[in-house]
Each structure stands twice: as structure tokens, then as C-alpha cells.
């Protein structure tokens, strides 16, 4: 059905500080104002979460919707997503480790996380698993959904209709554009959906990455011109948490996706 849209590249980020992404957006300035994501419910649709993680403060639940009936994150993709959004690594250190670049903190460490496992340990997924997870998110009344996955089939009507239902319910959905660039029309669904915030990625040099998918989509041709899909472009290559309570370097539009979700949680928590 869909695939996670980031890849692990060992050794590629040696010159990048662990705190690059939070420093790039001056997150510490917001933390000093007590804006930490508190009160925001964030759902992460991904590969699960290990039960013995120690880098997240407020995991409300981790629920598996696959036949494996296991919430563990074997792949490490979901651990990275949750870490970018809400890792507390370094933030509990009075010496300010995250600010010195020796740890990989996230943007909104006090956000409430709902980790919904929709991929197996072999990264397989199915539409009905997503539909169940979407209904669960509706029931939990989450505010934000990190949907760092993408697929080429806009004609998966049940999936597309459910995304529209969540958006109509006031849930903000953020999705990675895909890693099929630089060809035009390589944009993935649901990032191309008008009701979804589609996120493209910058490379380590701050330029639009060659791997980042482009839009407009071409699925309606020859009857239509396609739909614009990329709404935000942000960093898509840096360090974040891994499934072993350490840090890992990844790149992709999945990496860019939780930057937007984390920043939204951070900024929204600053509102009265």
C-alpha cells in the first residue's frame, strides 16, 4: 500500500551536529518561554515504538494494527519520527546538552504521543490497517497526524476518503512528498491531497534535494492538469532518535515531515 519515505545512511551525517534541526529553527527560544508542545495530541502512523524507550516523556499509547500484534519498532523509522517531534534527549540535562550539540532533542518534548503501528517488521502495510488507525485517531481526538508515508495510487478510494474525513474533523495531517524525485509528477499520495500538508525535503546543503518528489501529480492526465501537492519545504537530512535509545542519521521526506509536525506542536502550545 504505502512505504515509509526515509532512508538510513550510516556515516553520511558525520559533519552534522546532533542538535542541527532544533538549532536551525531556534527551538530553545520557545522552550525558554515554556512552549514545549504540552496539551497537543500527536498521532504517528508508522513502524511502532519499543516499550523500553527512554527518550519520550508522554507516550499515551502504542497500538498495533498489523497482524503481528507487536508494537516494537524493528525498522527504526517510527523511532526517528517520534524523536524529531518530541525527543527529550539532552533537555533534562542541566548543562544543556542539546544546545551544545551532543544529543538529538525533538521540538515538542511535552506533546502527547499516540503511536499507531501500521507497518510490519518487513515494512508491509494494508489499507484496512490504515483505516482502523485513522478511526482510532478520530476517537482519540488527536490534533496532528504525522503520516510520513506515501504511495502512487490516488485511486485507493477508502484511504483517500478517510483522509478527507479526518481533515474535515479538524485534524491537521502532514505527509512526506516521497523520495522519487527529481522527475515531475513523482509526488506521492496523500501528500498531493489538498487537505494534507505535503512536505518536500532539503539536502544537507540546504538545497532542494534531488531525491525529493515533485508535483503537480500527473494521475489525472490526459483529462486534467494534476493537483499541486508540495506545501512546505524543509530540512530532510539530519540526526534524530533511533530504536535503541541512541541517535541515527537519516534523510528523506519522512525526515522533513516530523519537522513540520514538531514545529506546529511547539508553536500551537505557545498560544493562550
Structural class: alpha/beta
Mean of all residue-level pLDDT scores? 88
- The radius of gyration over CA amounts to 17 Å
Strand content is 15-25%
Total helices: the number is: 7
The neighbouring-strand order within the major sheet is 4-5-3-6-8-9-10
Q: Extract low-pLDDT stretches.
A: 94-102
SSE order and pairing:
Layout: E1 3-4, E2 7-8, H1 20-24, H2 27-31, E3 41-46, E4 59-64, H3 77-86, H4 97-100, E5 112-117, H5 127-140, E6 144-147, E7 149-150, H6 157-168, E8 172-176, E9 197-202, E10 230-235, E11 237-241, E12 247-251, H7 253-268
Parallel strand pairs: 3-5, 3-6, 4-5, 6-8, 8-9, 9-10
Antiparallel strand pairs: 1-7, 2-12, 11-12
Helix pairs in contact: 3-7, 5-6
List keywords for this structure.
seven-stranded parallel beta sheet; 20% strand; 12 strands; alpha/beta; single chain; 272 residues; globular
Gist?
The chain is α/β, with parallel strands linked by helices and 272 residues long. The protein has seven helices and twelve strands. Helix 3 runs parallel beside helix 7 (253-268) and helix 5 packs parallel to helix 6 (157-168).
What does this structure look like?
- 24% of the residues lie in helices and 20% in strands.
- β11 and β12 form a beta hairpin.
- The strands form 3 sheets. Strands 4-5-3-6-8-9-10 form a 7-stranded parallel sheet, sandwiched between helices.
- With 272 residues, it is an alpha/beta fold.
- It starts with a strand and ends with a helix.
- α3 runs parallel beside α7 and α5 packs parallel to α6.
- The relative contact order is 0.22.
Amino acid at each position: 500500500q504505502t512505504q515509509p519515505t526515509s532512508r538510513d545512511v550510516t556515516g553520511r551525517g558525520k559533519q552534522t551536529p546532533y542538535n542541527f534541526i532544533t538549532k536551525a529553527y531556534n527551538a530553545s527560544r520557545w522552550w525558554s518561554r515554556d512552549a514545549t508542545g504540552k496539551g497537543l495530541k500527536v498521532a504517528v502512523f508508522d513502524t511502532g515504538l519499543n516499550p523500553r524507550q527512554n527518550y519520550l516523556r508522554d507516550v499515551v499509547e502504542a497500538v498495533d494494527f498489523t497482524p503481528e500484534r507487536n508494537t516494537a519498532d524493528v525498522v527504526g523509522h517510527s523511532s526517528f519520527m517520534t524523536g524529531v517531534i518530541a525527543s527529550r534527549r539532552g533537555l533534562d540535562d542541566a548543562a544543556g546538552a542539546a544546545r551544545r550539540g551532543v544529543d538529538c532533542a525533538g521540538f515538542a518534548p511535552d506533546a502527547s504521543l499516540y503511536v499507531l503501528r501500521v507497518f510490519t517488521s518487513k515494512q508491509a502495510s494494508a489499507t484496512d490497517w490504515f483505516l482502523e488507525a485513522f478511526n482510532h485517531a478520530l476517537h482519540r481526538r488527536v490534533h496532528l497526524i504525522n503520516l510520513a508515508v506515501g504511495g502512487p495510487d490516488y485511486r485507493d478510494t477508502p484511504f483517500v476518503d478517510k483522509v478527507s474525513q479526518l481533515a474535515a474533523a479538524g485534524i491537521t495531517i502532514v505527509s512526506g512528498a516521497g523520495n522519487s524525485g527529481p522527475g515531475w509528477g513523482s509526488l506521492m499520495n496523500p501528500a498531493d491531497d489538498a487537505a494534507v500538508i505535503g512536505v518536500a525535503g532539503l539536502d544537507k546543503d540546504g538545497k532542494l534535494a534531488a531525491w525529493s518528489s515533485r508535483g503537480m501529480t500527473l494521475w489525472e492526465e490526459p483529462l486534467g492538469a494534476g493537483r499541486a501537492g508540495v506545501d512546505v519545504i524543509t530540512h530532510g537530512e539530519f540526526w534524530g532518535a533511533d530504536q535503541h535509545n541512541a541517535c541515527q542519521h537519516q534523510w528523506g521526506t519522512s525526515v522533513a515531515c516530523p519537522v513540520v509536525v514538531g514545529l506546529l506542536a511547539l508553536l500551537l502550545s505557545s498560544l493562550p
